[in-house]
Design brief:
Strand order of the largest sheet: 1-2-3
Shape: globular
Structural class: mainly alpha
Mean pLDDT: 90
């Protein structure tokens, strides 16, 4: 009854529900009956909005569309505020629920195994990338250039220790649904060994070649920069490259590197803010990937609902990064129907770009 009352109040409010690819992905993790019922309901909505680069499709998009739109916007704008406002004018496509969800409504059963497999990959990825080992040595570029390799025996011993340490960290801090931390750690160390076998020269040469694979130069942040800062920049550039190759072939990569900096892209500011100032909870869940993707909607939607953990991360990031406090719109943690109704009815969009 409360849900039906909310639906009626929402439709009268004049606001439009945003549906993304990530919502659909998470929906498919539920029981088949729940999936059918929820798709059927969403398809009855007279209007929904979904992020989509240049309105190029009727399929709901997600973080890659938002990232691509911001990269495209930064070719014309110099600040994160201007990028946000430019993207906000065009990122959402509006149509009926039927138009947005017909494809997934028809093919969700075939897609379900693929989505579930990717959820497993997300769990593994979060466990590894959030580990101490994956961050790399916490030394400056200057000290890295002075470093020397140990003996082959010492290197092999260090690799074994790293694998054992990663397995322990995944077992203690990783998503509880990871079934074999030892196998995950062994796979990561094996990939590191495979990469190392292709590199030649000194420690600095190895670092330079490894960073080049991430589109970063060892010296671009200066000699006093921490190597961990370079690896973070490398992860950022890898994401830029992937999104650009898929969605923006008309923009030169050199122009993207020059213009699409961490300070100018709203999504990058949010990602770094949560990464640097968010909570490091006892369990690093794979679901935090999509939670952070969905939080990016807060730059563009009038009201974004997130879980309790993400709301606390956003609070900390807003407090530590003034730009985020200015750029983000309203976020609330998931609550009951009456509270959601009150939140929507209290929205003031008079200043919305």
């Amino acid at each position: 009854s409360a849900a039906r009352d909310f639906e009626a109040a929402f439709l009268r409010s004049g606001f439009i529900l945003v549906v993304t690819f990530h919502h659909i992905d998470e929906l498919l993790a539920h029981s088949d009956d729940a999936v059918r019922m929820r798709f059927a309901f969403l398809k009855t909505l007279p209007l929904v909005a979904w992020p989509q680069l240049n309105g190029s499709s009727t399929l709901p998009g997600g973080i890659s569309d938002i990232m691509a739109a911001e990269i495209e916007a930064v070719m014309h704008e110099d600040t994160a505020d201007a990028v946000r406002d430019r993207v906000a004018r065009s990122i959402f496509t509006v149509g009926t629920g039927e138009e947005a969800l017909t494809f997934f409504g028809r093919h969700w059963k075939a897609l379900q195994p693929l989505f579930r497999a990717r959820a497993e990959q997300d769990r593994d990825m979060v466990a590894v990338t959030r580990s101490a080992i994956a961050q790399g040595p916490d030394i400056t570029v200057r000290d890295l250039k002075r470093a020397r390799f140990g003996t082959p025996e010492a290197i092999a011993k260090r690799m074994t220790e790293m694998g054992a340490g990663l397995a322990t960290e995944v077992r203690e801090r990783g998503d509880r649904r990871i079934e074999n931390p030892e196998a995950l750690a062994a796979s990561f160390v094996s990939r590191m060994n495979a990469l190392a076998s292709t590199l030649t020269g000194s420690v600095a040469d190895h670092a330079r070649q490894a960073l080049a694979l991430q589109h970063v130069d060892l010296d671009e942040l200066g000699q006093d920069a921490k190597f961990t800062d370079l690896t973070k920049l490398g992860l950022f550039r890898q994401k830029l490259r992937g999104v650009a190759e898929e969605n923006l072939p008309h923009i030169l990569w050199d122009n993207i590197v020059e213009r699409a900096t961490l300070e100018r892209l709203p999504y990058a500011l949010l990602e770094r803010g949560i990464q640097d100032y968010g909570q490091d909870l006892p369990e690093r869940k794979g679901s935090e990937v999509y939670d952070r993707y969905l939080a990016t909607l807060a730059f563009y939607a009038d009201l974004t609902y997130v879980d309790r953990r993400t709301q606390e991360d956003l609070r900390r990031a807003r407090q530590a990064v003034p730009e985020l406090n200015r750029l983000l719109r309203r976020t609330e943690k998931v609550s009951g129907w009456s509270k959601v109704t009150a939140d929507i009815l209290s929205l003031d969009t008079s200043a919305t770009p």
